[in-house]
Specification:
Elements (H helix, E strand, L loop, with lengths): L8 E8 L2 E7 L11 E7 L6 E2 L10 E3 L3 E3 L16 E8 L2 E2 L3 E2 L5 H4 L6 E8 L2 E7 L10 E11 L5 E6 L3 E4 L7 E12 L4 E7 L3 E4 L4 H16 L2
Antiparallel strand pairs: 1-2, 2-6, 3-4, 3-5, 3-7, 7-8, 7-9, 10-11, 11-14, 12-13, 12-15, 15-16, 15-17
Amino acid sequence: GSSQLPAPQHPKIRLYNAEQVLSWEPVALSNSTRPVVYQVQFKYTDSKWFTADIMSIGVNCTQITATECDFTAASPSAGFPMDFNVTLRLRAELGALHSAWVTMPWFQHYRNVTVGPPENIEVTPGEGSLIIRFSSPFDIADTSTAFFCYYVHYWEKGGIQQVKGPFRSNSISLDNLKPSRVYCLQVQAQLLWNKSNIFRVGHLSNISCYETMADASTELQQAAAHHHHHHHH
């Protein structure tokens, strides 16, 4: 019978950067000694349902006691293709009993993903400039389909925030800054998916602050003054 077991509650799909994880709350039975197990199935737009197992997707999510199925761990392809339309469903099982299926709303990774901040941010101060290098939030296999562009939010400490972008490059130079001043900045990625004209604005990186270098003429003046000062003693 289909509804002899309660169905798993509050299933959630996590799509963060490249992660694809389905999780749910455990079904608790007071009178059973055996653990409840779970089965996850998936389908694409016009396909039949497939059991999420090693053969079909590369991870085993059939008769599992865990309350999550991590499709990201699927190797070598790592989960569902990011432009596919994917529907997941889930049920609880105990011996010959099983619950009703719980079907999730369909998703397309590029359409629904939460984009994290750019990674490995390195900033090199120059004379009145800051050069910012970073890596993308996650790897995109086919950059003709989808790509990142980047924005830098920056401000002189205590001053008005400005935004520069969009840039396609992972190396951005902020020029025309004042020398010997502290500037703070945050970097942000935006994912563009060509097919549907969809873009996902990413999380900002943590604020970090840097002092620009003094320009050469100021340094010469300071050195000369310093040198002159010493002669008097």
